[in-house]
């Protein structure tokens, strides 16, 4: 009886963790799009900077004040030698995501973000000369095909937004691959990652945001009709961006790898549906099919990764791959690119 109750509680806990993760993620995405489109605050660098500041303050409160998470101590030298380069790529990743969100619909942007597994595998193969099981390559085919179909049939296509989203995928892949080498020896969770990287990212982005968008922000402050309510929404998006990082930490510790992968892809579908209901951006039938193919491909990719990870070390590999050069799994956990 007690075991049955514990099993039910574990399922409820996992479901609640997934729902709160979905809620924060979708809310942050929709709020950012609302800020760009409805509030006409068309300054992605400034929005990113606000998110970094709120996240840095939030991480400090959680670790130093409330002590909900233990601080992972990093040597002062490693902060500049390891954390700073990671923060630079982290900053580019978030900025490109917000830039793409300004120019293209949420549905298109979220679908392109699903291209991250493919860019990660290709980068590791081209630059680091790592080899993968043939099933990993096969699982990328529906992802690439779905992205191509979605891009060709997108009714609100914008080349600048598309390129920003695509380079955002490359930045996400680069960030995760660099983390394997630069952060070797440190077991960072999402909260400690934000604690160390958000201040650096703010420092990196503050000057470009001031120079490129400062005058525009000042003009917006003087001319916007409902300033107070708009500023509340803008800064609330920064607070929710930090809450999203905390929710990622919670969902990872409450679900299995397979559940996390499936929930991550369903999260994209939920974000696409909710954004369409709010903004009513036109979506053709073929565009929806391309998005669905991409999400199914991402789920299949995650399933293949899980199957390979469960294989015992002596399992025979494909004869076309040199046995001493096999890298069965990509480094990236592809659903953690929500960090803001």
Automatic annotation (TrEMBL):
Q: What is this protein called?
A: Sugar phosphate transporter domain-containing protein
Q: Output the lineage of the source organism.
A: Eukaryota, Viridiplantae, Streptophyta, Embryophyta, Tracheophyta
Q: Name the family the entry cites.
A: Belongs to the TPT transporter family. TPT (TC 2.A.7.9) subfamily.
Query: What SUPFAM superfamilies does the record point to?
Result: Multidrug resistance efflux transporter EmrE
Q: Which residue windows are transmembrane per the record?
A: 12-31, 43-63, 83-104, 134-153, 159-182, 194-211, 231-251, 258-279, 285-304
Task: Tell me a GO biological process for this protein.
Answer: nucleotide-sugar transmembrane transport
- On the tree of life, the source organism's domain of life is Eukaryota
Subcellular compartments: Membrane
Q: Which UniProt keywords apply?
A: Membrane, Sugar transport, Transmembrane, Transmembrane helix, Transport
Q: Which species is listed as the source?
A: Rhamnella rubrinervis
Gene Ontology CC terms: membrane
Q: Which InterPro entries match?
A: EmrE-like, Sugar_P_trans_dom, TPT_transporter
Q: Where in this chain does the record put each Sugar phosphate transporter domain?
A: 15-301
**Chief location of this protein within or outside the cell:** membrane
């Amino acid at each position: 009886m007690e075991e049955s109750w514990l099993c039910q509680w574990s399922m409820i806990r996992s479901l609640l963790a997934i729902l709160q993760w979905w809620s924060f993620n979708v809310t942050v995405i929709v709020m950012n799009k609302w800020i760009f489109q409805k509030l006409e605050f068309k300054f992605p660098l400034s929005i990113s900077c606000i998110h970094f500041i709120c996240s840095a303050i939030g991480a400090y409160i959680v670790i130093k004040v409330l002590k909900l998470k233990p601080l992972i101590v990093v040597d002062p030298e490693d902060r500049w030698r390891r954390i700073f380069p990671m923060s630079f790529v982290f900053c580019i990743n978030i900025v490109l995501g917000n830039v793409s969100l300004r120019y293209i619909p949420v549905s298109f942007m979220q679908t392109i973000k699903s291209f991250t597994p493919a860019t990660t595998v290709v980068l590791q193969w081209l630059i680091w000369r790592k080899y993968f099981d043939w099933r990993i390559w096969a699982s990328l085919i529906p992802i690439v095909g779905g992205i191509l179909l979605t891009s060709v049939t997108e009714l609100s296509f914008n080349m600048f937004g598309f390129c920003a989203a695509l380079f955002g995928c490359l930045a996400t892949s680069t960030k995760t691959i660099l983390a394997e080498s630069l952060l070797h020896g440190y077991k960072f969770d999402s909260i400690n990652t934000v604690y160390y990287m958000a201040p650096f990212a703010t420092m990196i982005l503050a000057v470009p945001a001031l120079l490129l968008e400062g005058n525009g922000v000042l003009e917006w402050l003087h001319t916007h009709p409902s300033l107070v309510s708009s500023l509340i929404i803008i800064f609330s998006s920064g607070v929710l961006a930090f809450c999203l990082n905390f929710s990622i930490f919670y969902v990872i510790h409450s679900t299995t790898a397979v559940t996390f992968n499936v929930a991550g892809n369903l999260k994209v579908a939920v974000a696409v549906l909710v954004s369409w209901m709010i903004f009513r951006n036109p979506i053709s039938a073929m565009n929806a099919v391309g998005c669905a193919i991409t999400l199914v491909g991402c789920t299949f990719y995650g399933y293949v990764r899980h199957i390979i990870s469960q294989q015992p070390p002596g399992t025979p590999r494909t004869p076309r791959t040199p046995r001493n050069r096999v890298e069965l799994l990509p480094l990236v956990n592809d659903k953690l690119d929500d960090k803001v």
